[in-house]
Design a protein that fits this description.
By secondary structure, the chain is of the alpha+beta class. The protein folds into three domains: 115 residues, DNA Polymerase III, Chain A, domain 2 (Roll), CATH 3.10.150.10; 125 residues, Roll (DNA Polymerase III, Chain A, domain 2), CATH 3.10.150; 108 residues, DNA Polymerase III, Chain A, domain 2 (Roll). It is built from six helices and 26 strands. The strands form four sheets. It has a nine-stranded antiparallel β-sheet. A hairpin with a 2-residue loop joins strand 2 and strand 3. It is elongated and about 80 Å long.
Length: 371
C-alpha cells in the first residue's frame, strides 16, 4: 500500500477515529485504525465493538492495500506535522511495518493484520430517513446534559430517540437521570414513521456531535431494534443501542403546575452562578423565594458563608419558597435559546416544569430539594 493524503484531512479523520478507539483495551487490534486504500479514496475505520466510525477521503493512491496501525499514534503524528504537509503512508507486503513520512520527518509504526480487525456486521434496518444536521444536533445537544452517568441504571445512560403520534407526528429525544429531564421534539421527517424507539448510548451521542458540525449536511438515519446508523457524505457512524426499556417519562412531566414565573434566561443563569459561589460543594443548594414580580435567590452554607441576590421576574401568584441544585438550574438555563425562560411551579415539594418562552418543543423538568 502506498497513499498520500493532505495533513488537515488526515488529522480530522484521525481525531474522529480516536474518539471511538479505547485507549486501554485487552484486545490490541481495537487500539488500531483500519486503513484501506483503493481507486482515488482512502478510508479509516475504528471501532470499540459497540460503535464503528468509517470515513472515506480523496487521496493519491499509488498502490492499493489495507493495514491497521495504532490510532492514537497516527493522530499525534498528524497533529504535530506542519500545516499543508502531504503525508505519505507506505507499507511493504509482509514487513509488518508502516512508513509515515512528510518532508524530512519519517516514522515507522507497527501494524497488525487487517484480517483480524473486527468489522461491525451490517444488518437490515427497519426504517431509513433523512434529516438536516442542525435539526438532529438540536435534538441531541439539548437532551445531552440530562443523561444519567449511574451505571446501575444503564437504561438511562443514553438518549431515548422515538416517534410519537399524538398532537401531530413528532420525532422526540428524551433523557433523564431521575433528578432532571429533557424532552425535545421536532417534526417527523418523511419516512421516519414507525421507527422503533431506541436508546442511543452516551458515547455515541458524544461522537455524533462531530458528525453534525456541517450545517449544510443531510444526515441519513437508519434504525433497527439493535442498531442505529448515521451517514453523511463520506462519513458513517454505526452504533449498537442500549438493550433495555426506557421508563415511562410522561408520568414525570407535571401537568397541573399553575404558578407561572417568566425570567430573562441569561440574567437568571448569572444570578444563580453568583450566589452558588458560596454553596456547599456536595449539595449545591440554592433557595428561590418568589414574590410578586420579584425573585430572591439565596444560599446559606454554614461552612462557606451565605449569599443573596435578586432578579426581576414576571410572577403574580402566591409567595413561595423552593430549593434546587444550582448546577441543575444552570444546565437547564444554558439550553434556553429564547430570551425568556418560563418556570411552572406547583409547590415546594413538587417537580418544576421549565420551557423556552411559550415554545413547547423543548421542555425540562427539575426536581426540587430541601434547603
Amino acid at each position: 500500500m502506498k497513499v498520500s493524503i493532505e495533513r488537515a484531512a488526515l488529522l480530522k479523520a484521525m481525531s474522529r477515529a480516536q474518539g471511538v478507539v479505547e485507549r486501554r483495551t485487552t484486545i490490541p487490534i481495537l487500539s488500531n485504525v483500519l486503513i484501506e486504500a483503493e481507486g482515488d479514496k482512502v478510508s479509516f475505520r475504528a471501532t470499540d465493538l459497540d460503535i464503528e466510525i468509517l470515513e472515506s477521503l480523496p487521496a493519491m493512491v499509488e498502490q492499493a492495500g489495507a493495514t491497521t496501525i495504532p490510532a492514537h499514534t497516527l493522530h499525534e503524528i498528524a497533529r504535530k506535522l506542519p500545516d499543508g504537509a502531504m503525508i505519505s503512508l507506505t507499507e511493504e507486503p509482509g514487513e509488518g511495518r508502516l512508513q509515515v513520512s512528510a518532508g524530512r520527518a519519517q516514522f515507522t509504526l507497527p501494524t497488525l493484520p487487517k484480517e483480524d480487525f473486527p468489522v461491525m456486521a451490517s444488518s437490515e434496518y427497519d426504517v431509513n430517513y433523512a434529516i438536516t444536521s442542525p435539526i438532529l444536533r438540536r435534538l441531541f445537544e439539548k437532551a445531552n446534559f440530562a443523561i444519567s452517568t449511574e451505571e446501575t441504571r444503564y437504561y438511562l445512560n443514553g438518549i431515548y430517540l422515538h416517534t410519537i403520534e399524538e398532537d401531530g407526528s413528532k420525532l422526540r429525544a428524551v433523557a433523564t437521570d431521575g433528578h432532571r429531564l429533557a424532552r425535545i421534539d421536532t417534526d417527523l421527517p418523511p419516512g421516519a414513521a414507525g421507527a422503533p424507539g431506541v436508546i442511543v448510548p452516551r458515547k455515541t451521542v458524544g461522537e455524533l456531535r462531530k458528525l453534525l458540525e456541517n450545517d449544510e449536511a443531510q444526515i441519513n438515519v437508519s434504525v433497527s431494534e439493535t442498531k442505529i446508523r448515521f451517514a453523511a457524505e463520506g462519513l458513517t457512524l454505526t452504533s449498537k443501542v442500549i438493550d433495555g426499556t426506557f421508563p415511562d417519562y410522561t408520568r414525570v412531566i407535571p401537568q397541573g403546575n399553575t404558578k407561572r414565573l417568566e425570567v430573562d434566561a441569561a440574567e437568571f443563569a448569572k444570578t444563580v452562578d453568583r450566589v452558588s459561589t458560596v454553596s456547599a460543594e456536595r449539595s449545591r443548594a440554592v433557595k428561590l423565594s418568589l414574590e410578586e414580580d420579584r425573585l430572591t435567590l439565596s444560599v446559606n452554607a454554614p461552612d462557606s458563608g451565605s449569599a443573596t441576590d435578586e432578579v426581576a421576574v414576571a410572577y403574580s401568584d402566591e409567595a413561595m419558597e423552593i430549593g434546587f441544585n444550582a448546577k441543575y438550574l444552570l444546565e437547564i438555563a444554558s439550553q434556553v435559546d429564547h430570551e425568556n425562560a418560563v418556570m411552572m411551579f406547583n409547590g415546594p415539594g413538587d417537580p418544576t416544569l421549565v420551557r423556552e418562552g411559550d415554545d413547547d418543543s423543548a421542555i425540562y423538568v427539575v426536581m426540587p430539594m430541601r434547603v
